[in-house]
User: Fold these one by one.
Assistant:
Number 1:
Amino acid sequence: MTTQAPAQTFSVPDKWQWFTESRYGLFIHWGPYAQFGRGEQVLFREHMNQAEYADAASAWNPERFDPELWADTARKAGFKYACFTTRHHDGYCMWDSAYTDYSSAKQAPKRDFVREYIEAFRKAGLRVGLYYSWIDWRLPAYFDGPEKDPEGWAKAKEYLHNQVKELLTNYGQIDHFFFDGVWPRNADDLGSVELLEEMRKLQPNILINNRLGYSEQHDGYRADGGIGAGDSDTLGDFGTPEHLIVVDRKRLWESCQVTTWRLWSHVFGERWRPADYLLDMLVECAEKGGAHGGNLLLNVGPTADGQFPPEFVERAEAIGRWLDVHGEAIYGSDGGAITEFITRGRQTTRGNNLYLIIRFWDGRPTLRLADLATRVKGVTLLTTGQTLGFAQQGDELVIDGLPQEAPSRLFPVIRVECEGPPEANAWGKQRLWEGDPHRVAEWARAQRGTSVYRDGQER
Ligand code: GLC
């Protein structure tokens, strides 16, 4: 009989506890591509002229970039860490790299944006992550590969390794590293396994994502090399389902999601997902994921002149205000979906508490939770701090005294304090399509009979 997805069985080392405590990170896709307002891959997607793009990128000078303002906004919005694009597929480097002059430090801005980002975010108390793309659309050797162009490939590979090591050497502690764009190479071409070892020497506490490519030489690393959804055996410390919220049962995971639609950097004329949609993704990540829950890495594409778009700030701050009140249901939560609760919203847990995150507020004074097997000690409407009445009979909990009007525009939360870690009975653990179908038959038979007639009686 299948019930809920089995809990993850691995344990999280102390040095990575911050990641599960955080739950919520900010992805920042920013570079010279923002000028075009058609996404971070505009160079390739529109098959632009490389030299003209390089001219525009080199002239790019975002004068309104204020990393402290970014960090302050991120902190208020409830993000606990961030991940910044140091170099996307266009090859333009956002730091002072010793290995190229195609960078913000050597071209128009004459600034090391990576350093400024790291210092400001760290000062605001956030953990820092770096995004780095394997792909560099400027380098033919990257695409020709080691067979066709061994010399060019050796140089390209050395360049990549040097840059990654440079990023992990010159900027103090880096908490999170997000490789991307491994196509069309694999882990053996790229020397991912060797590079990973060197990265760990430089940064013993770092968490490295899974986009490191497939390895034939290192058995067991059956990489997808791409979005990394599901229980894959790829290299890396955490899975990165992209535009998806999928549990990785073998390791930590972080779903990366846009606030808009598909593209990651600033887009002109974009439409924005509403705040409750974004918050629901965060809650879903926290709810899914068995023992350790999942994280949401929510994206922002700052404008070419260096600002977070107001549409983003408005939504992020609304979620931040919600987290100020309801954060205990998210940060450090232990996953949820304890009982079947889809008719009302989502659930998370933390220690002995069960959090009911209500999507549908129907105005009735009572809420009935079927199948909670753990004894309840107290119930609080977290949104207002109000203590709620309750009655528990067998495995049925009826909460009383709910206000008619929803107490908040975003999801209200009820905290159910239990005597031990909350658990459902067997029936409650099963979802619609799971479990013993005879249990369903018995439920129907016992309560109304067996026939198609209204009264269930056979004629
Ligand atoms: C995809 C996109 C890339 C983006 C990344 C974020 O790989 O191709 O542009 O940076 O997702 O996860």
Number 2:
Amino acid sequence: MNTDRRKVVLIGTGMVGMSFAYALVNQGGICNELVLIDVNKLRAQGEAMDLNHGLAFAKSNMKIYAGEYKDCKDADIVVIAAGVAQKEGETRLDLLQRNVEVFRSIVGPVVKSGFDGIFLVATNPVDIMTRVTYELSRFGSSRVIGTGTSLDTARLRYLLGDYFTVDPKNIHAYVIGEHGDSEFVPLSQVMLATKPVSTILADDRNEYCVDDMKQIEEQVRTAAYKIIEAKRATYYGIGMAITRIVKAILGDENSVLTVSAKLCGEYGARDIFIGVPTIIGRNGVKEILELTLTDEEQKKFHASGNVLREYFDGLTL
Ligand code: NAD
């Protein structure tokens, strides 16, 4: 009996979904079965063929095929990267409502298959779509996760690493809140190794300053707009972020990642799904870490949560 079977189903084989699949194949060893599902079946079939042809060059073997919703039955993780694009003149809320319909056509059949694993959502607006998945699936909140601000956090660490000329892996910092315009960096929580960056900024023997931090935060917040302007969409970074989260789950890593998770009183909020540092392991959310925010940071977090609440309340489920 093979006890090390790790099966992932990807729903939505567009740019984001396939960037994830490509990263999964290239990093190797994360899972050994990948099923591709899309409303455009031919596309899913073509993508499966294309990926399979690269397996001879990959680190480890994987079974990859275009499948059906019934294939979700024994999957460990269902990743959702399906969505529709904004039409001309369409409001964000109209788009959101159409994506709710897309999710209705996905989450119902996944649950009906007998799926008993973890949902990981990447479709935007990701915090809302994660909550929609939670409401439609009626799964426990620990088993419904969104990519949240994981990509934004990676962007932040990259920029801070560049600024301080330090390996981004030694920068401990998070972008929290909505994956969108109201997200922010709690500066009080930014560390270079174990040294608070606020201490480095207060030391006038160096050239580092708070204004530069604000600029970096703005660069993170507007990164997606810039990339979309240049190449229409963003997908490699988010594909790798999804891969990272999948690896943390299947490897039972208990890694801290800023996913979109349901708050149950943490940060003085409940019921919303929002990007927060979260311990992720085999069963999904193990624990939400509650950072010690300053009053000003707490206000920003509260405001970001209100944005998400308003959007969700405007939807018909
Ligand atoms: P895309 O248009 O390339 O792909 C979307 C795919 O979804 C298409 O293949 C389409 O056929 C499929 N689809 C549509 N309706 C479906 C349905 N009912 N069932 C199954 N499949 C269906 O788009 P993309 O660039 O891959 O982006 C996908 C989503 O990811 C978007 O919502 C985008 O905003 C989001 N995104 C999220 C982040 C993040 O940080 N979370 C970053 C970038 C993009």
Number 3:
Amino acid sequence: MDIGIDKIGFYTPNVYVDMEKLAEVRGVDPAKYTIGIGQEKMSIAPLHHDSVSLAANAALSILDDEDREKIDFVLFGSESGVDHSKSGAVWVHNLAGIQQNARCVELKQACYGATAGIKMAMGHIALNPDSKVLVLGADIAKYGLNTGGEPTQGAGAVAMVLSQNPRILSLDNDSASMTKDISDFWRPLYSDYAFVDGKFSNEAYLGFLKEVFDNYKEKTGRNLSDFEAMCFHLPYTKMGKKAILALTEDLDESETKRLMDSYHDSIYYNKQVGNVYTGSLYLSLLSLLEQAPEFKAGSRIGLFSYGSGAVGEFFSGIVKPDYKKYLNKDAHESVLDDRRELSIEEYEATLEKALPKDGSDIAIDDEQVNLGKAYLSGIKENVRLYSVK
Ligand code: CAA
């Protein structure tokens, strides 16, 4: 059965910080952030946005009434979930107006969560061919002010509708995955900020990539020349360049150049948003599909998902005829272009602003913020209150 991505959209908050200005204030050469790390802008989430509202906005940007009727499974990948018990999927299900006879769950394994959702969605559709599944990857990446990870923060969400006979990307059923218990990046329950062993996390990412890609090649008989382009989990966009160099180190330069050409299209959105953890790989896929010249139908795209801690998976998909018709490049460019730049003082205040942790009520009222369609309006008696415009 042909199963894959039928629709894909994203949302990011409408405020950002400029990386060159952040570098100057931190006493760092701006080229370190823009070239060494590869980030130009970083989306920042105001108090009105959490992983649920970001995901709801991404979902609302792609769903129509037929989707709302046919979706019977909502899978919410996140590592910045808002409740230890209730899944973000239940809130999004309601905010997006999806029919009631559906299952909703949240999936956690660092940045791998949305990929786990895709794999579960494929199995569900294989058993229930008329179903549609909504897969979400939504996160706010926070390391804190003046930390090593500070230039690799971000906020946003990707929403995808998976179905049989998809119009954008068919997903191959063969893939290779790997799990190892390591401490490269994690976030203890008490902390708003992630902990990371930065250099080790880079090494672990590349080590996983090489091992799962070797395994994928062995299982499928395919090799690099079978791929028109590659998309990677992008904690920062330079990581994708490191990934291509790691995969092509024993090959001639033409192979590296071929993959590097599409790499620039695959990082266009991510370098303006920053790390969105679970959504990063899929934001890169969206960027590639919307920004690169149209691939021939049948072109194969490689996808590497990495969730610290760690789980990695290499899988692949094949672009469908006329897939560009079903994307929304203009709307996505507007989401990025219509954002407001924060001064460094505003960025610092916004990043450190937190919801009450002592059970007290709050009504969030920030007129400065363009909220998107769905937003968190407050907390009352420990219940989060979301609104949809
Ligand atoms: N001009 C151009 N380039 C410069 C420069 C300049 N003036 N100054 C430095 N650079 C380059 C460096 O040469 C280096 O390049 P390479 O990585 O290619 O060697 C790059 O800029 C970064 O410099 P440093 O290594 O000195 O930077 P750092 O010590 O500040 O750490 C970091 C960078 C490890 C990414 C850190 O920001 C961090 O810990 N980020 C969070 C963790 C992370 O994103 N890990 C990625 C893998 S884990 C994962 O993928 C899961 C996830 O989402 C978190």
Number 4:
Amino acid sequence: MPIHRREFLQSAAALGAALALPAAAAPARKESRYELIPSEFKVQLDPANPQRSTVWSYNEQFPGPLLRFRRGERAHIAVQNRLAQDTTVHWHGLRVPNGMDGVPGVTQLPIASGGRFDYRFDIKDSGTFWYHPHQASFEQVPRGLYGALIVEEDKPPKVDRDEVWLLSDIRLDEQRQQVEDFGRILDLANDGRRGNQLLVNGLAAGPDRRIDVRAGERLRLRLINAASARFFRVVLEGHAASIVAWDGQGVTPHAAPTDGIVLGPGMRVDLIIDCMQRPGARFEIREAGRPKLSTMVLGVIAYSTQAPLRSAPLTTSIAVPPNALPEPDLDKASDHYIMFQGGMRGSPTIGLIDGKPSRIQDIMAKQGLAWTMNYNAQHEHALMHEPLLNLSRGEHVILHMVNETDFVHPMHLHGHFFRVLAVNGAANALREWRDTVIMAPRSSLDVAFVAENPGEWMYHCHILDHAAGGMMGTIVVE
Ligand code: C2O
Ligand code: CU
């Protein structure tokens, strides 16, 4: 009776939210309202090339509009579906009530073509987030359905400029049209479907994607990886960047690695950069993910010829103030394990498909499944399956992820942030909060969190082809 269980969870979640509000003292929240209209339209991806490409995106803008909020506000986002197929919107990284999480078949019914859904939730955390469909994500996201969502801090670090770069890619043919080869088993079971054109804010990457600065300025650069399968390794020429937030949550500021900042699909990083080079100079921002091949230019930091704004960098703090996330107590935490197997390379995998042990590599092509989590293989719409974990509300949890595959996986949990404790058993000194974390091939990863948010939450690989091929399950908090 999984459907009944879900209905119960949702009404329980709604009740819990109502009870949590102190009846008389609830402050009137300011509401920010947006409308998102997903549809198909044509866009010129390269200002230097007049050919237009068909994409799907929101409000006939590509990428979708940047949604801005302040912490503590109430969001109301009305979605009107003008696509020919069902959709939903998921608010990646936001701790929303389960019923607003945008997962079809789990937290809501899909929004049918021509239909509408109103998302309403309180904005709990400041930071850099994004939004995208959770319906057929392996197709809808690479077709162009994604946008940035920024929640301003109450006291942000002082900067002169705040830029958002939404990184992605698209697979184009010679006519610069989308190659419609979504969901191929070859992509599902390997590294996922990558594009052949890198995009920065929906435009072809290259030296024309400029961040215009004046010498002496302090720049905050927010990078979001919205690609469905591509990792970005971002190298900044001529500038020392400090990492001040991962996935929107402030961290102890530290120098970005000079060999590049690695962002898996779904991940975000906030950088602070003091632009202390000469007026008129230009420096490349490169993607160096494939060091043996030539690196690709994403864009440039372009200095105006104006005299420097200041001669020494600002001395004010660059730290991003923390959000109020519940701190896991490791002494009383319970241990849970999730093991991953499968993929086209590596050891053969036996997994349960509809309760029956099957050799995954044998049924791959027929079933469209390539991965197992704790020996289970399930399709993207996990409605008929049991959750991977059942946690009690308020439980302190250490989640041990064991990757037995030969593939890298950016693992994402909905509704919660977790602290990254250890990689392959070695303590991670930074202990940053994340909602998406890179799990290297044949490695283990330990994370900790408090299961505070009631409901049924997706836990999946953010290589969207992997999620479609079985790396998608749920964790129930009740
Ligand atoms: Cu960004 Cu389950 O997704
Ligand atoms: Cu994966």
